[in-house]
Amino acid sequence: MKSSIQGFINCESEWNEARAVIFGAPFDSTTSFRPGARFGPAAMRSESFGIETYSPYQDKDLEDLKVFDAGDLELPFGNAAAALDEIENAADEILSAGKTPVMLGGEHLVTLGAVRAAAKKYPELRIVHFDAHADLREDYLGEKLSHASVIRRCWDILGDGRIFQFAIRSGSREEMYWGREHTTMEKFHAATINEAVRAIGGAPVYVTLDLDAVDPSEFPGTGTPEAGGLRFTELLSALLALRGLNVAAFDLCELSPHYDHSGASTALACKTLREMLLAYCG
Questions:
Q1: Which of 36, 114, 185, 220 could cross-link to 165 by cystine, CB 3.0-4.6 Å?
Q2: Quick one: three-class SS letters along 21-83?
Q3: Over the stretch 82-95, which tens digit does the pLDDT of each residue have?
Q4: What is this structure's pTM?
Q5: How do the residues of the chain divide into helix, strand and coil, expressed in percent and rounded to 5?
Q6: How far apart are CA 276 and CA 242, in angstroms?
Q7: What is the pLDDT of residues 230-272, one digit of tens each?
């Protein structure tokens, strides 16, 4: 992997010394409503210099971390299966080097590629999933590889009892009924996050954050905004509750920056990534 020309703020370590590796997955070919998430990774990098490296929430600083930014993958637009293979290969390389993959989406389907890699290395993998949408459809308009079915495809790999979902407030009746039987789902909130932490224990964890978990009043820059979401401070509290877990990999997805010309959504995404890096890689 080569260093990107402009990386996320202060993520300038060399590959050999890095503990974590950021890479972008700029793909949104299965987006079902408003496209644009493929521009999210680049926007986060360029706008990250508008935030501080220091977190007053955690009393930690990105200056004290060793993070390498590998830039964006070159993904075949319009070919979901091939794109997922590329993502899986990149995550494999990072995991094989003993580093933590940190993926910037792109639409939420990209998570499946990274989960495939993580599950190969960690057969006991768990997933903690924040999202407005359940993403549990068997298929969307006949396509099994869709951002609307990504967590169902992850379930195909992991099975029952290993996926914990939070802030879910949208989905078909079939998805919601299916989720009752096969995942641990908290609708509307993340108040039971500590119960999930206890249930997960020492197992390796993949944390996936669809940023539309945040209410559109604070995060309008996404493809499928859904009213009734978390406040940023609620999301941050839930993310920080995971600090004691064995986080093997994580991602942030579904920032579509051009739907928020104020830049506030991109700034929120950057701040969230800073906090996740400090919490899980510090």
A1: 185
A2: EEEEECCCCCCCCCCCHHHHHHHHHHHHHHCCCEECCCCEEHHHCCEEEEEECCCCCCCHHHH
A3: 999 999 999 999 99
A4: 0.95
A5: 40, 20, 40
A6: 10
A7: 999 999 999 999 999 999 999 999 999 999 999 999 999 999 9
